[in-house]
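[job 4471] stage=fold_predict status=RUNNING
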Amino acid sequence: MKKVLKMSLIIIGIALIIFAGGMFSYRYLKSMDVVENEEINESATGNHVLLATQGSDFKDSVISQIKKDMASENVHISITDTTKLDKVNVDDYDKIVLFTTVESDDIPENVTTFMNDNKDKSIHIAVTADSGRWDKQPKDVDAISEASKSTNKQDFVDDLSNAILSE
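[job 4471] inference complete, writing structure tokens
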């Protein structure tokens, strides 16, 4: 009986280790990079827009296109990472645009906290998700949500550009 119990515990232990390793690997592979702060059109006299994003191949390609498209526009864009939102003074900006990812069925907690703390500000949010859906999207939040596939790149570029340039 002891031998059967020992073997069962060993098998369960190995299964737990494999499961935990798989979960950490998945989280590591899906985690976003941190983007550096950047200013676009710093001398522009138009609106000052905060564009908070995360680093990934897809998001980097969208932001790269946004930078090219906005180079000739009269708008000052401050790009920062979403992990730095707690250091943002929203009164410094005319508009706030968030470009984030659904992780474990919801957007990062600090992004939700930022949105909740600034409900009086107009915030535009674009969300990428492997499933293409943000299942826990609050009813009072207007957001675009699609999969981060190259076929959707222009949709995000257009959406973010419209949010940046709209009056």
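[job 4471] summary: The chain is about 40% helix and 20% strand.
[job 4471] exit 0
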